[in-house]
Amino acid sequence: MTGEPQDDCLFCKIVAGRIPATVVRESGTTLAFRDMNPQAPTHILVIPKAHHPDAASLAAAEPGTAADVLREAGEIAGEEKLDSYRIVFNTGSGAGQTVFHAHAHLLGGRGMQWPPG
User: Fold this and answer.
1) In this structure, is residue 66 part of a structural domain?
2) What are the tens digits of pLDDT across the range 25-81?
3) Are 57 and 50 in contact, with CB atoms under 8 Å apart?
4) Transmembrane region positions (predicted)?
5) Is the pTM of this model over 0.85?
């Protein structure tokens, strides 16, 4: 069920404290931690604590929490002293989503080309 923790979800396990992560910020609705396979000098994942399979389902079910994810990403960018950064939501395996729990990638610390890969 959307919103409920999933036993087989990596990010739900991180939220529950069953898998360690390098947490950089936590709010009532979100958790942010460093990506284990960084694609930039700063690569932080910002996730809702509630399970939603992708950004669109999160926005439909909990628009306030979707806004919290974006707000937290901006706050973290400031804390990390990033003057330029990218926030990415991958939706679906064809777009590179590998963990089906909504999450934003905060990337910075290097030049970002357009269009991306």
Assistant:
1) yes
2) 999 999 999 999 999 999 999 999 999 999 999 999 999 999 999 999 999 999 999
3) no
4) none
5) yes
End-to-end CA, the chain:
33
How many structural domains does the chain have? Answer: 1
Residue 2 lies in a domain: no
Instruction: Classify residue 115: in a domain, yes or no.
Output: no
- The structure tokens 């898998």 sit at 19
**Which is more confidently placed, 113 or 79?**
79
Residue indicated by tokens 């950064």: 85
Q: Would you say residue 72 lies in a domain?
A: yes
Residue 103 one-letter amino acid: H
CATH number at residue 99: 3.30.428.10
Known catalytic residues? 103
